[in-house]
Amino acid sequence: MKIINNSIFSTIILLFLCFSFILSAKPNNPTKSVRISIPLSDNISHRYEKYLLFAYNHLGYKVTFDQILIGRARELVNSGDLDGMMIAEKEIEQSFSNLLRVPVVIAKGALVLYCNKSVVCDKSVLNDVNNIIGVTSGKSISANFMETVQASSYAIKSDEDLGSMLTKDRLYYVLLIDEVQLGNLGSLNESLFNSVVVYRSEGFHYINKKHKNLIPGLTQGLQLAIEHYGPLVSPKK
Predict the structure, then answer these.
(1) Is the per-residue pLDDT at 222 higher than 70?
(2) Is 235 exposed, middle or buried (0-12, 13-18, 19+ CB in 10 A)?
(3) Do residue 133 and residue 176 come from a single domain?
(4) Helices and strands of the chain, counted as H and E runs
(5) I need a surface site. Which of 108, 127, 195, 236 has the fewest CB within 10 A?
(6) Does residue 13 lie within any of the structural domains?
(7) Nearest in space to 102 (alpha carbons), one of 118, 79, 83, 120
(8) How many domains does the chain contain in total?
(9) Long-range CB contacts for residues 91-100, cutoff 8 Å, separation at least 24
């Protein structure tokens, strides 16, 4: 009987050790999570998604991406209802005090005025009170810029819809971001319109300030992602 009991005891110990080994051999899956807003444009979200996943997974975070209108997304991230936004121009910091920049440039571009070829196309049109300029709704880079000039603005929910309004002659002027790698975000055939650069800017990943402790890790994570997947921005542009 004693020999049998010892045998059972030895078997239990062996099973326990095997179970412990299996548990320790499992990969460390992310247990923390963040919700990040992404633009309506698939071209933009597909470009940056894998870089952000790499950076957050590097810190042990699971990422949920929420596709939300740009103006609404900025309000939700600023209030803390969302944890971050995929990308935004640096000028966003002037309007939203609770957003923190992850200091790795992930985009370069310009705010560009696109015009119907039947009208004058230079910066002077922005200060003509008789002109109406199409912009992206919410506190977007184009809407914020229009607060500094005299022309009126007409807000549309997305860059693609803004481009469509210009193409269909429903607007004679629109302000769109022209990103160095992606081109104009309104999907315009640029040969059909005149244009002038209003000013140039850079894009960054932003998070709510409640996550300020993540800034060093996300900075390193994005840099590692760029080394892994390749550069997002050409140093020559």
Answers:
(1) yes
(2) exposed
(3) yes
(4) 6, 9
(5) 236
(6) no
(7) 83
(8) 2
(9) 91/141, 91/144, 91/201, 92/139, 92/141, 92/206, 94/144, 95/139, 95/144, 96/139, 98/208, 98/209, 99/74, 99/206, 99/207, 99/208, 99/209, 100/206, 100/207, 100/208, 100/209, 100/211, 100/212, 100/215
Count of residues in the chain: 237
- Residue 107 CA, chain-centre distance (Å), reads 10
Residue 107: CB atoms within 10 Å: 22
Which residue type, as a one-letter code, is found at position 10? Answer: S
- The range of the structural domain enclosing residue 211 comes to 32-107+202-229
Q: What's the pLDDT band for 69 if we cut at 50, 70, 90? A: confident
Q: Which residues, listed in sequence order, are joined to residue 156 by a DSSP beta bridge?
A: 136
C-alpha neighbours within 13 Å on the C-beta side of residue 1 = 0
**69, 116: one domain:** no
pLDDT at 234: 77
| For residue 5, pLDDT beyond 80 | no
Q: What is the pLDDT of residue 22?
A: 41
Q: Which of 51, 50, 147, 37 is nearest to 91 (CA)?
A: 147
* Global confidence as pTM: 0.80
Q: Which pLDDT score is estimated for 180?
A: 87
Could you tell me whether strands 173-179 and 99-116 are parallel, antiparallel, or unpaired per DSSP bridges?
A: antiparallel
**Cβ density class 42-68: b for 16+ within 10 Å, e for less:** eebbebbbebbbbbbebeebebeeeeb
Strands (E), the chain: 32-38, 61-67, 84-89, 99-116, 132-136, 152-156, 173-179, 183-184, 193-208
The fraction of the chain above a pLDDT of 90, given in percent, is 69
52 and 131 share one domain: no
Residue 61, CA atoms < 13 Å, CB-side half-sphere: 20
